[in-house]
Amino acid sequence: MKNKLSAALFLGISLSATSCATILTGTKDSITFNSTPEGAKVIHKGIEKCTTPCTAEIPRSLSRQMVTLQREGFNNKEVKLTKTFNAVSLVNILLGGVIGVGIDAATGSLTKYSPNAYKIELEAK
To answer: How far apart are CA 94 and CA 99, in angstroms?
Structure first.
């Protein structure tokens, strides 16, 4: 009886501590950036990620995320990254994994970036 109780307790803790979206889909998304003209720096949170055309890994977050494209001779362009609900996180919700949902929320894995490609036109100064 004691072994069954221990096994049930272990199973319950394991299920409630899962963070399926974080484990299965990670905490970053690869996003492709193209600009007209090419050669613009893609900056996220003050850090240069790449130069267009390029693909950058952007950490997920529940807060609003912006990237800025900069190229000499052109006005800077801010782009809001749009997100959708990450369906994998439903596993935690359906299984009642409150801890797992909390982990997914903290890592931003409740959402994912969509679309995963942006085409941005820069305006000359």
So the answer is: 13
Those residues whose C-beta lies under 8 Å from the C-beta of residue 110, and which sit 6 or more positions away, are: 21, 62, 85, 86, 89, 101, 104
Inform me whether the pLDDT recorded for 18 exceeds 50. Answer: no
Global pTM value:
0.75
How many residues would you count in the chain?
A: 125
What do you get for the CA distance between the two ends of the chain, in Å? 77
What local confidence, expressed as pLDDT, does residue 17 receive? 45
Q: Beginning with the edge strand found earlier in the chain, give each strand of the sheet holding 41-44 in spatial order.
A: 47-51, 41-44, 65-70, 77-81
Element (H, E) at 24: helix 20-25
Q: Give 2's contacts (C-beta < 8 A, 6+ positions apart).
A: none
Instruction: Sort 104 into a burial class: Cβ within 10 Å, 0-12 / 13-18 / 19+.
Output: buried
The answer to whether the CB of 109 falls within 8 A of the CB of 21 is yes
